[in-house]
Amino acid sequence: MKKLASIILVTFLMGMLCIAGCNTLENTPVSVLRARDWAIEEARNTGIDVPQNVTWNVQNTTPPMLLGYTTYTFTFGRFRIEVGYPVVLSPMYTVVIFENGTPIWEGTVEEQNLP
What we know:
By secondary structure, the protein is an alpha+beta fold. The chain has two helices and five strands, in the order H-H-E-E-E-E-E. The protein has a five-stranded antiparallel beta sheet, with helices on one face.
């Protein structure tokens, strides 16, 4: 019985950790991933060497109580990519790429123009 209670407690705590901020690529909207990949490709086309084909850490960084706008932040090493968009039917995505905390590329793309 103690073992079952321990398993339930651990499962509950892990769930609470995920609710409190853990995020994975699996539950990130596909359109956000496409906007990130679009920005990486556009930046690379202008000569900015942004990593591609790597595993990015992702987190929904929308401030609490903010309604109508969502932001996801991807990090890998010294790079950070922020993808933000209004919560509307066909959003315009704003993407900013940072290196060591300094913005190095910024662009916007409509959802219907994503690859």
